[in-house]
Amino acid sequence: QAQLVESGGGLVQPGGSLRLSCAASGNIVSITVMGWYRQAPGKQRELVATITSGGSPNYADSVKGRFAISGGKTTVYLQMNSLEPEDTAVYYCLAVTDRYNYWGQGTQVTVSS
User: Comparing C-alpha atoms, which of 72, 77, 27, 26 is closest to residue 52?
Assistant: First the structure.
């Protein structure tokens, strides 16, 4: 069974850091892009960062300079520094293939003092 498993979320204070991890397993082949989206309560899901199989990263303007994405084949990581309350959301891992977009179950990130 195709599966993306995320981990690393939690509760941190503003200015803190977290690292999210995602691993693809099962019947997921020919991944071309992996990345992270997030969804806050009452808001639409939005891009955080992506990385191609060739290693090219892309970041939302809101996280540039604070977040770093790595990986891009069957695993992907998101190092989040200088976290702000506005970063509070459920973070979802994405794997793109020529056939489907696969989504993880989400991991909660809460930034609060």
Answer: 72
Which tens digits make up the pLDDT trace of 10-28? 999 999 999 999 999 888 8
Return d(Cα 22, Cα 101) in angstroms, integer.
15
Q: Where do the H-state alpha helices sit in 30-101?
A: none
3-state secondary structure of 79: strand
Q: Which residues 6+ apart lie within 8 Å of 98 measured at CB?
A: 30, 32
- Can you tell me the distance from the alpha carbon of 3 to that of 66, in angstroms, rounded to the nearest whole number? 28
Q: Are 76 and 50 in contact (CB under 8 A)?
A: no
pLDDT digits (tens, 9 = 90+) for 38-74: 999 999 999 999 999 899 999 999 999 999 999 866 8
